[in-house]
Amino acid sequence: MIDSLLFELMVIGILGIASQWVAWRFRLPAIVIMSIAGLLAGPVLGLMNPEQDFGELYKPIISLAVAVILFEGSLNLDFKEVRGLGRPVFRIVTFGAFLSWILGSFAAHYVAGLSWAVAFVIGGLFIVTGPTVILPLLRQAKLKPRPAKILKWEGIIVDPIGALLAVFAFEIIEFILGTNVNPSALFMFFLASIFAVILGYGCGKGIGWMFETGYVPEFLKSPMVFTVVIACFTIADEVTHETGLLSVTAMGMTLANMHISSIADMRHFKENISLLLISTIFVMLTASLTQETLLQIFNFQTIAFVLLMLFVVRPLSIFLSTWGTDLSKSEKLLVGWIAPRGIVALTVASYFSSILLEAGFEDASILISITFALVFTTVVAHGFSISWLAKKLGLSTEGPPGVLISGGSQFSTGLAKTLEELKVPVLISDSSWERLSSARSRGIKSYHGEILSEQTEYYLDMTPYEYLIAGTELDSYNALVCTTFVPEFGRNNLFQLSLSDQEGDNLEDLVHTIGGRILFKEGASWEELNTMVENGYVFRKTNITEQYTYQKYLTNIDDAALLLLIKKPSGKIEFFSHEIDHKAETGDVVVSLTPPSKEFERIQERLEEQRHEKNDE
Hints:
The protein folds into two domains: 59-393, Na+/H+ antiporter like fold, CATH 1.20.1530.20; 402-603, NAD(P)-binding Rossmann-like Domain (Rossmann fold, 3-Layer(aba) Sandwich). It is built from 25 helices and ten strands.
């Protein structure tokens, strides 16, 4: 066992972030890796047991972390996003959740062998999915916008509803069994839920008003938001347990739909905090499990219950609740399969296990085992199957990494056409129809609109694109585009054209802190690149083989040619830039912008002479 609490915190943090990195590096579900890391550190090797080591601080830490994660997730719930999806989403989070509760409760009673009282409590809890598991899976799977939005909205909205259903079921049980014969208790529960929603709405409106009117300086905005989130959660939770989750969800949704620029600016910072919390909290939860809990998972009744939840309860509740909506069969199949449970299910199950045992329900002793069995099974099954199933159903945008080019021009069009020929998804974005005319005339996919506009994310699906090139004639605009999209693409995948060599421009000192990487080794500017294209330079693709090596290619290439990029057999693209000197290998394709051939030059000269002759006549 680890003796130092500080050292244990360090180990938990390292395990969580290392799990995220391994998952990213090998394209694995992050939640699965974190679960395995926690199990190895906890019940398997016995290195730590955070629940015992942290003592009374353990549950408040978990609760506050869940509140922040849920708030961050609810900041993405902009009603504009569900245009055309309002009906299926509403049906899933209401009728679908109710069906899942009833069917799950019957399964818990008849299959898992739980009493009716415990079954209805756990049935309400098991309708949750939650942002802690859904959002990482959506990042990994690259789903099309419709199914991705449905799963995201369901996960975030149903999270507090599931916890409240469990509390409601417990209140009903106490009332029916006579342990708390007080009709006002149920009435107070509903009042507490309404109070939580009003509190969250009020906090959201209050923060929004203060930000819009300038009552909060920029450096205090993030700390203030987090402080209010914790206060909002704690006050509601003190009134009635688990209503705090409802309160922070209401607060997040309120702020999301106020469209305040300050909140949008902070979103990426909060996403980083949320990622850190998910990484550490999931490790803490799994490391706190005991070996006895793990052994109980392999009980036949537990296994049968989990399989029933996966293959009957979830699909049936989705199909029935979305009957008559415009969801396709493929979308229903995907949504009906994907329902991983996460942190909220584990934390609330732990709370109700002790409460129900105190109330005399001895079968509640296996609640944590059943919950973890469902959590781990769904995380593994759905984590490893979501990408495969989405591809099979035609709901995935998975494919070779694409390129998004901001700025229409002759050079952009030529580069985009070359990438298309290499089977690379490409799109040119510009706010001017005139600058997009060459791309449209050659059949290249384009987007007419301001890429920096808030509305862009609602109309332009950026999921297929992993690289962004800011290719306008304005250096400052290119730098702004790259800086804006750092959180989405990562700085290594953002590129901009070389800074214009104009008198008065002195932006070279800024390229290390703002903007993207400067494109192309030789550093050609927008003017130079488009002049080259106008003068007949061609985009040439050269295959590197064992016989025709990259070294031979460099020896033979024209001195005036400009190396643009290397396309790997895996689909990865390496753009030549100031910072990195790439080397092509066997199987790679090198794209360059090369001068016209002598024959082409002769034709051009002949055409020029003919034009002069006509003018003389």
